[in-house]
Specification:
alpha+beta; Trna Endonuclease, Chain: A, domain 1; 7-stranded mixed β-sheet; 34% strand; globular
């Protein structure tokens, strides 16, 4: 079941799942990932450049569902669940929140997706620290990497070119 998780870096509790490590092993099921995306996410969490508290499938309530706020349960929860956008991974550090989008291939659409998620995250969760974005893929694309960097989005790929 999705959790409400309070962290000191945000004004509101996160809605999502905490990534857990049991006996040093990553224990998480990535519900909407392909097998390749799940593997890239695991590699990034375990071997990537970030160290912090990890969360996945973090919900971003959609404006499409504003009227639902006053609806009765279970309709409100169901509609919010169906219309929310979802951040693949979130790494929370002392002074930074990292929004991470995971894909098999680096596509230009992922850059716009991250910009949308960053703006929605800031509006809804009202973070008290800086927010950065990461585009994490199995296969890189140097053209997309250049555009991402120009927009302040960091990139990481399993395959190095």
């Amino acid at each position: 079941m999705v959790e409400e998780i309070r962290i000191p870096q945000c004004s509101r509790p996160l809605i999502g799942y905490r990534v857990r490590f049991i006996e040093g092993k990553l224990r998480i099921r990535f519900f909407h990932f392909t097998d390749e995306e799940a593997e890239v996410a695991r590699l990034f969490i375990q071997h990537g450049p970030l160290d912090g508290e990890w969360f996945c499938d973090v919900r971003l309530p959609s404006r499409k569902a504003r009227w639902v706020v006053e609806a009765e349960e279970p309709w409100r929860t169901m509609w919010m669940h169906l219309t929310s956008k979802r951040i693949d991974l979130l790494c929370v550090q002392k002074d930074t929140i990292n929004i991470i989008e995971v894909k098999r291939y680096m596509l230009s659409s992922g850059v716009g997706q991250l910009e949308t998620y960053r703006d929605m995250f800031i509006e809804y969760y009202k973070p008290l620290v800086d927010v950065t974005c990461w585009y994490v893929t199995y296969y890189p694309d140097p053209d997309v990497e250049l555009v991402a960097r120009k927009r302040g989005i960091r990139t990481w790929s399993f395959i190095k070119v």
